[in-house]
Amino acid sequence: MGSPAPSPDQDLHLLLKTNEALFMEKLFKEYYGLLCRTALRFTKDTEAAEDLVQEVFCKIWQNREVLEVTTSYKAYLVRSVTNQSLNYLEKQKRLVLTEDTSPFEEAFSANTTMDLLEGAEMETKVQQALAALPPQCRLIFEMSRFEELTYKEIAETLEISPKTVENQMGKALRILRERLLGLLVLFYFLGG
């Protein structure tokens, strides 16, 4: 019997010490898609999401000699992109204060009964229900369901206890169930 295969993080850590260019290439190939999806959930703008992810990779490259990852690389990167996205949203809020409603907001307000039957509209309702969650609750739910992080990885990323993650997930599911129940009942009566 041989020794167990090294984990992806062990491979990355070894590459960081021995071949920085290959480390960055592997890190990019492994996590770029996930990180863009993470940023997109915040920004709702593909170009902005890609720019934010690129900034995170640039910072990692610039700080590669002093980079210390105490969690998994996945959790570290998701946290970095989440923080970068939240900073981006904060800057956007300041810029948008004087502008009219965005096309994204207009999409939320244009509902008819027939539209509810369409998949895109249903998704909008789900997005609205998600947006109504308290911020930390929503962040934890999205990290769990969309980024597929474990409760432990979420806890490490946000520097909270796994029990808090579990409680916030329970709260998110309860709120979403309550908010979407009416939609499901309406859909049932219109369909039946």
Largest sheet geometry? none
Shape: globular
> Whole-number radius of gyration?
20 Å
N-end to C-end Cα span: 61 Å
By DSSP, the count of extended strands is 0
* Helix content percent band: over 70%
- Put simply, the count of helices is 9
Low-confidence blocks of residues:
108-113
Order of helical and strand elements:
HHHHHHHHH
Mean pLDDT, to the nearest integer, reads: 79
Structural class: mainly alpha
β-strand amount: under 5%
Descriptive notes:
The chain is globular. Helix 2 (20-43) crosses helix 4, helix 4 packs across helix 8 (151-158) and helix 6 (119-131) runs antiparallel to helix 9 (162-191). It is built from nine helices and no strands. It has 192 residues and is mostly helical. The relative contact order is 0.09.
Descriptive key words:
about 190 residues, mainly alpha
Task: Set out the fold topology.
Elements: H1 8-18, H2 20-43, H3 46-62, H4 73-96, H5 103-109, H6 119-131, H7 135-145, H8 151-158, H9 162-191
